[in-house]
Amino acid sequence: MKLLHPDLFTNKSDTEKQHSQDQSSLLNEAYKTLLSPLARAHYLLKLENITLEESPVQLEPDFLMRIMEINEDLAEIISKNESFPMELAIEMRQEIDDHMKQLSTALNQMDLTKARELLARLQYFNNINDKLIDLEVKHGII
After folding, report:
1. Which of 58, 73, 82, 129 is exposed most, by the fewest CB atoms within 10 A?
2. Distance between CA 123 and CA 53 in Å, rounded?
3. Burial group, residue 23, by CB count within 10 angstroms (0-12, 13-18, 19+)
4. How far apart are CA 98 and CA 50, in angstroms?
5. Is 60 a residue whose pLDDT tops 80?
């Protein structure tokens, strides 16, 4: 990455500077993708021409109802400035961990249908986890 850093191209031609910026940007994006398990999974599915945006996954109503209830509970906790929901945080992080393991297995076995479903579910869990992290910051936990 350092070989393409734009600072090394300050005395080069405009074409070389632009090439350096473009390549450096691509490397940074690739690095971010590799760091995030969800982004990696999206990328691996994209390599197989599968995207959640183009063909959304129909998740079971019970799962969606559960997610809606959790989001409502979180909204109430936030609005009433209640204490941090530690049990919910533990449960969600366990769900994420379990789903990540299943996703890894599905991808390794090239079970792309299962991987696509797990990734869709993980996106919901990840959104809840983001809200939990915001609450942890607000409550001084992290």
Report:
1. 58
2. 12
3. middle
4. 22
5. yes
